[in-house]
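Tutorial, part two.
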Amino acid sequence: MKRIGVLTSGGDAPGMNAAIRSVVRSASAHKLEVYGIFRGYSGLINEELKPLDRRSVSNIINRGGTILKTARCPEFFSEDGQKRAVETLKKYEIDGLVILGGNGTYHGGMALARKWGVPCIGVPCTIDNDINGTDETIGADSAVNTAMEAIDKIRDTATSMERIFVVEVMGRDSGYICLQVALGSGAEEALIPEGQFDFHSMCHEIVEGNIRGKISWIIIVAEGVGSAGDIAGRITAMTDLETRVVVLGHVQRGGSPSARDRILASRLGSEAVNLLVQGHAGKAVGVTSDNLNEVDLETAVSKKEFKTAGLYRLLKLLT
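Running the prediction step on this input gives:
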């Protein structure tokens, strides 16, 4: 192996730049050339590539987003799209790929590895923490901290104005961010896709609390549960208390990555290069119990079981 490529695909996550830096500098230590592929699989199809050296990745460890840009590419999942991508790899004599992203990115890597024999190693970069084979994904810690900081500020006005605030966080299929944020911010309730909550019981608790003199509530809702606006309307209708809505949205993806994410990205990016050098393919790197490990990409994209019951019980115990 003499030359590798690195790309970021799908939704961006804080820490992607730290991972790119780690891949490039670790490859340099192995005397490998590195090509950065811009805009994910779309850039691979359209030949948007650029050589990267150690200096190319200076001063990016602290930056959010990705210097390689990112995009979703439905075209890549067609036979013609994959063929054009493989032709690009052959043209630039790229012997292996490090792919940074989540489930969609990994499925792309599986296609390249299975059908076209391209050695691919996945690095888990997604704020949803929904990749198997790793306790944490790059970006999840930063996203939780960003949301929590915003909610700390919302609580100030919720208390001052004596209101209920429904705060929507990201999490279409997983309550990971929602529960972490709710616990960390001392919220009164977390509404998650896994369905631990009881809406009517929650409204009854609000009314009972108000009778006892409680003046404000913070309710965190994962986007996969439903519209925060609709939920707020239902709460007002059932409690007769003023309810406001805040949708944090893509602010959770941005900003400087946390120290935890920078360190995780540095470890996993370097390990991905090590695996390529050792001849591995179709794998994903991760950390479990603080130890580096690898799993097949197929395993990595299978549905991850996030154990919500214990955390939810703790949340209710502490409110």
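The chain has eleven helices and eleven strands. In part three we will examine how such features are distributed along the chain.
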